[in-house]
Amino acid sequence: MTRTLVTGSAGRLGRSLVTTLAQAGHEVIGVDVSAGTPDEAAATLPADLTDLGEAYDVMARFRPDVVVHLAAIATPFSRTDGLTFRTNTQLAFNVCQAASSLGVGRVVVASSPTVIGYGAPSGWTPSYLPIDEEHPTKPWNSYSLSKLVAEQTMVSFARTSETKFAAVRPCFVVAPEEWAGAPTQSGHTIADRLDRPELAGVSLFNYIDARDASDMISVLIERLPGLPNGEVFFAGAADALARRPLAELLPEVMPTTETARTTESIASPLTGTAPAFTSAKAERMLGWIAKRSWRTELEIG
Q1: According to the 3-state scheme, what is the secondary structure of the chain?
Q2: pTM value?
Q3: pLDDT at 123
């Protein structure tokens, strides 16, 4: 049985991941400063992983085979800038340092699509659409910068460690209860984001069901030993969180998606239900593709 330690196990994604991994046969250890880790976890421990000593203690106590690092201040501007940057970067370093030093075989670090730079007050234009892992990163706030630093921290350890590392950029995570009307991480409901395109437009209408993101991480854990060390993957739904094609919507809600060309917009490839972020790399290297859509989940909710 694979012993997998999940940091941030009581969070929006962490709860689904604990359940998914337990159902897949993992012995899951949940680590979170907050209550709420699902009962499927074999053990839980409240620990402040911004303290390097506590990070080492956690790894030494449980000796996991795998660590999935989700713990973070999870949304931009929810805390002060300095605290957000300090917390998220220290967490990433401490987890990578303790895991690699104590011989953990596989580590997955959660990043964010915000590293791309959308929503910048001075304006932002994607280099191309759909956006993949090769797209330039342009973080503009403490949260997005902290996530890019977390990625680079992971890559740095991957260069010198025998531990296999990877990072995942999950799109806007929707927990199961949010399909039934519970507030999302932004405070709005999913119905609000569909009815008012300007709400979801700032993040290019990206989203992913927490269970799909958990499935992706579960597959990544299994495939990680055979992958190049330090890979980064987007994880998003196969469609956009929008009722109209993004080829129409993006030029309306984000005029800067229009290029200097007069004949077409760089958003023009996004016809039908196509999303702005592509998970083609995860499909190609992991054989994973998201199964759930707002079109089906909202009806269920």
Answers
A1: CCEEEEECCCCHHHHHHHHHHHHCCCEEEEECCCCCCCCCCCEEECCCCCCHHHHHHHHHHHCCCEEEECCCCCCCCCCCHHHHHHHHHHHHHHHHHHHHHCCCCEEEEECCHHHHCCCCCCCCCCCCCCECCCCCCCCCCHHHHHHHHHHHHHHHHHHHCCCEEEEEEECCEECHHHHHCCCCCCCCCHHHHHHCHHHHHCCCCCCEEHHHHHHHHHHHHHHHHHCCCCEEEEECCCCCCCCCCHHHHHHHHCHHHCCCCCCCCCCCCCCCCCCCECCHHHHHHHCCCCCCCHHHHHHHC
A2: 0.95
A3: 83
